[in-house]
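Quick question, first post here. What does this chain look like in 3D?
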Amino acid sequence: AYKVEYIQRMDTILTDINSVEIFSLWPTLVEHCRLKYTWENIADYFAELEQSNGEIPNELATFINSGTDTLDWNYDNLNNRIGNEKATMLRRAVLSSKNISMERFRVALAGMTFEYRGGFPLVDISSERMKVIFELNIVPMTVENIKVVRKSYPQLWCDFVVSANPRALLKLMDSEIVTLTVEETADLLEDSRIDVKTALDLVNSCSEIIPLRNRNYPVPVKAKIIEQHFDSDEIPMVLQSFEQTHPQICRAFLEYAKKHVDLVASSAKAIQCIPVKVYSVCIEEFTEAQALALRPYLPDKNFEIVCTENKKPQFSDTAEVRTILKYFK
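> Answer (accepted):
Ran it through. Tokens below.
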């Protein structure tokens, strides 16, 4: 008891925990911060006094939180210091700890320099801490880790890919080792952290229809989707928003429309709306019945008037207007 009291009162900071040979005194040293803040002291304490459940003892977590220095316990150093088995246990204990502060959590893991290529082994880490783990490249882009993220951390799919390198994912996709779901692809295409070139390559690597509705893709990505993976059920949505749509997306849809005039015609008829530019590019491909049936749904009602009444309303002098008037002349 007097030794414990002495430790509690002493002003000296011990450099090496091993200078105290009575292990039962170590918790007191740690609790009262009478020990130099080094990775060696933390590792030695864990190796000797870790609990059977493999967790960081509360007093050790508190000690870790008390410091501000880096912890340079890289992979080889830690293995050499406390042995491979204990080192593995310590890494997992830090990963799963809920008592280490977020700042110290990042510092501790950054100094450990390790990764799990064969599948990250822990499934109940909080999202906040998993994001740090991803950022430190502890979970690289492998087939095994993709499975883990899909099963245990699906809400962090984009965080994982962004940290683990989207280009590495593309390589797995191009090798047909990994196939993404439509939702996984769409989530990545929306993520502003992924550059447009990589996003376009993701679209090229996809073989499924990609939805536009309720998605906020970059303009070039949206145009590419219309060119290659457009859902025809979304034609009405594009027709109704066409006049407010970015020119690059409009151009992509006009090319699509010329190749799918029947789908465009049926969609326009259903919603009773067809933009002038869409009508103009399709008019030579429409049947006469389609052209006549869709004409009343043009936003400018003067087209219907000039064709059905003895009147000559004024039109804007555009290529689209000239094309339509020429057709009905």
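The radius of gyration is 32 Å.
The first helix runs from residue 2 to 9.
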